[in-house]
Amino acid sequence: MKKTILLCLGLLLVGQPAFSHHSNAMFDQDTVVELSGTVKEFQFTNPHSWVQVDVVGEDGKAVEWSLEWGSPNNLGRQGVRPSTFPAGAKVMFRTYPMKDGSPGGLFIGARFDDGKVVGRWEQ
Amino acid sequence: MLKRIICSLFVLSFATGSGIAGAASDSARPDWSGVWAMIGGTIFDRDTQTGQGGSTTPGVREHPPYNAQYEALYQSNLALRDQGALPDPNSLCGIPTGFPRIFNLPDVYEFAVTDDQVWVISENGPNILRIYTDGRAHPAPEDRWPTHTGDSIGHWEGDTLVFDTLSLHSSENGRTMLDRTGLMLSDAAHIVTRMHIDSEGQMEVQMTIEDAKALTAPWVVTKRFRKLEAGTRVYDYACNENNRNPIDPETGWTYTTDTEGNIIDLNPGQ
User: Domain-by-domain residue ranges, chain A?
Assistant: First the structure.
């Protein structure tokens, strides 16, 4: 389990979700954080979906991250389902982190151990 | 009257349930059936948007021709936006975005044509814009008051719906805002809208906005919508279902909470 901060590089070019419900000012969209963790819960809910991920830090303690995503309506039309992130799954996530360093961010993409990708995962 | 209500409910049910909305009984009416999505971002005035966008983006116009008072108010809103502290009522959940912002939303749309009304139904809401096409006039000034969608009366010019909207809330009372840059109009706004499907199959919505209190000239804004594939479904949008982004009433900052409702981030304004 690890947390890696990536320089944004080309990822900045791929745009951002069309949120109308609230400002995205809390996210640092110049930085991408890569998280390796275990899915605790997937909230497929309005107005936004959330992926709760337990990430074990270098001190060995688990920290729960909240990754905010789109509405289930739009995600559902794109093929996402409540079962997309089952609890207990080991997944690598990329997120635009909260500016203040709190354990949360804007969901970019995810890659499962078997190589399956959800969202955006440009190399 | 009862027959009319039943008929309307049937048409609405047909429209929202089958995905072939707008199939009016009058064959002279255009076919606006299906599910639609706005083209482009949810910013009316791309000049003010940081990052992507620009005033030349199709479907948007340049800076509104504000008078000095409203330009100052707008610049103040832009500064708040830059601080993440714009008090956008849309973030409060449950308050209609109203008109004209109803044509400036993510998620999807249906345009339901009936014999005597047209309904613009946005999935992101709650939002329904009712346009009366039965020949009625606006209520007398003493019989109408500002609302989120105002009062809209329209008529058909061939396949083009032309409608006139009055009695909108003023942005100055904080009840409405046109987008998240803080675009504003006053309660004097008078909007004439032309809707039709263009030669490329896109729904074109051109709004000519006059506002004697806010604008020095008419502001023309065009939004376009593309039809999604047949069978596309529309879902509930329940903004308070799991809203984990409460707004600080003092600073306008949008917080983030954990699954228990505890705020997890710091407010840079405090």
Answer: 2-119
Mind giving me the DSSP string for B210-246? Answer: E-TTTBSS-EEEEEEEEEPPTT-------TTSS---P
What's the predicted TM-score (pTM) here? 0.83
Domain spanning A2-119: which CATH class is it, in words? mainly beta
User: A54 at the B interface (CB within 8 A)?
Assistant: no
Q: What does the alpha-carbon distance between residue B59 and residue B66 come to, in Å, rounded to a whole number?
A: 20
Are B134 and B116 within 8 A, CB to CB? Answer: yes
Q: State both tokens at B82.
A: 């830059």
Contact call for A20 and B258, based on CB within 8 A = no
- Containing H/E element for B197? strand B190-197
Q: What are phi and psi of B171, to 5 degrees?
A: -65, -20
CB contact, 8 Å: B236 with chain A?
Answer: yes
The ipTM assigned to this model is 0.84
Distance CA(B137)–CA(B129), nearest Å, equals 17
Q: Which domains does chain B have, with CATH numbers?
A: 2-227 (2.40.128.20), 240-270 (no CATH)
- Tens of pLDDT, residue by residue over B19-42, are 334 444 445 799 999 999 998 878
**H or E element: which one contains B132?**
strand B128-132
